[in-house]
Design brief:
Distance between the termini: 20 Å
Shape: globular
Helix content: 25-40%
Structural class: alpha+beta
Strand content: 35-45%
Number of domains: 2
Number of helices: 9
CATH class of the largest domain: Mainly Beta
Oligomer: single chain
CATH architecture of the largest domain: Sandwich
Amino acid sequence: MRLVMIVNPTAASLTRRDLVVIEKRLSLRHELIVHRTSRQGHATRLAHRAMKEKADVVIAVGGDGTVNEAANGLLGTTCALAPLPGGSTNVFARSIGYPNETNKATTVLLHALDRRTIVEAGVGLADGRAFLFHVGIGFDASVVHRVEKQGALKKYLGHPWFIASAIRSWRSTDRQQLRFRIRTTDGREIGLAQMAVALNTSPYTYLGNLPIKLAPEVGLTTLLSIVALEDMALKRLLQATRAALFDAGGLPDSDGLYHLREVEAADITSDSPFPYQLDGEPLPPVTDLRLEHYPRALRVLVPAT
């Protein structure tokens, strides 16, 4: 097969030796071209070029940001995407069954290439940009914004830095200003929320090896789900955390917690700008955000069973 590998050379868990080993293993059995990203958005352009040059599979090596960019360059094409973990969390790759350790994930990837286990996957769209696993709105996004302000700490401290950032964001008075409304195109409505997550796959994220499942029903071939919290009171947070860790159905749809299933499209609106993040990338605040499901938008190479 003709493969194009797009590598983020600054990915948190990759070493030069890792990349040499990956390249050797892939090139033994396939035609391989390797590109390295040099700036934000570069992976999208490289993936689109690979598709035009008749690549069969684009392998995105890095974190979730690199995988997301590559996916946005391949929407609606016959070229498949394969994620290879190299970041701090690697939510999408792990959610579809790839191991988090790079060498093991390469072995699984090679087997999937042999078996050609490609799925026509749906993606979410947030104002036209694709997301593979989730969009976080309000408090969730404010945590991600805080984490990304000091990227070096994220790279070297990993999950403890996320936890510390969440605590600092929760203590901040800014969270009290978060207010937005959610309305789906089929008429369901949440009149007030301070945090929401629209999910295209499950889990929402990982805490080490522990998956945090807000909406376990979503997957590559389902519609979106949206979960939301009316406020960020400690009691509400503890209730949501317990459900995400231990309840088979994820967040319940009661008592200030909301769980909307099978969402084709929804509008998020507010009188003042609210933050949001897309697949872990913080984006500028907005007062309106359109979420949509785009079925069979992306061919994804999944692990062979």
